[in-house]
Amino acid sequence: MKYDEIHIENLDFFANHGVFPEETKLGQKFIVSLVLYMDTRRAGKSDDLQMSVDYGAVSHFVTEFMKNNTYHLIEAAAENLVQEILLKFPLLEGIDLELKKPWAPIGLPVEYASVKISRFWHRAYLGLGSNLGDKKAYLDYAIQRLNEEKDCRVEKVSEYLVTEPYGGIEQDDFLNACLLLKTQMSPEELLEKLHEIEKEAHRERIVRWGPRTLDLDILLYDNLVMENEELIIPHIEMHMREFVLKPLSEIAPNIRHPIYKKTVSQLLKELKS
Fold first, then answer.
1. What residues act catalytically?
2. pTM here?
3. Other CB atoms closer than 10 Å to residue 258's CB: what's the count?
4. On the chain, which terminus has fewer CB atoms closer than 10 Å, C or N?
5. DSSP 8-state symbol, 66
6. Which residues form the 7,8-dihydro-6-hydroxymethylpterin-pyrophosphokinase domain (predicted)?
7. How far is residue 151's CA from residue 247's CA, in Å, rounded to a whole number?
8. CA–CA dist 198, 200 (Å, integer)
């Protein structure tokens, strides 16, 4: 999706960031430029500042954050600054940021050193399942833990669905659900977080498709198609699983599978036919 842009160019301030003690103690000049991505149509039609992001407020927030925090690396300063801006201003979908260090201690004639980063909110659809112990409590726990993550927001959750086990192994019925997660995490970071939550729920990976306290899968992540040794997106078997498509169709019936180009509702209808 292509967003509208608000630009803030060359905002300068004095702050204390750097590897060397004199940098963090004495401070130096920094310059920030930002591109703020959002939909400005409602603000443009209404002429109402509440429908937009106040670039003055963003500028003051950037200045105060950079003055009140100290980082060794401008990479760390940029990363944390962007995360906090996205959390502070909920209408924003993403940010391009360049952080310049004009007085970088390089020992050679140079105008500045800088780092550029681009960070966005992403929308991931997750599958949840449990068939050991208090199944509902495990699903509730996973949703709560995701909501507690600073850079995650659970936007929608389907009803919990009782389903027969998948994979031909004799075991108890599952409780399944799907949710929509708005996150700043990369797919790899999200997978690591899901494994961490599964571990907290005493998940043991002994038998494939075997019983488990908690199973968390990334089904879709934006419109991404990717595959590596650890992760395949979209989930390789989601289009063949009614216990995925049924709760997913409840919260996202018109989302299209990025490979098959069919909506979740269409995939569910074809699976049942």
1. 101
2. 0.90
3. 14
4. C
5. H
6. 208-219
7. 24
8. 5
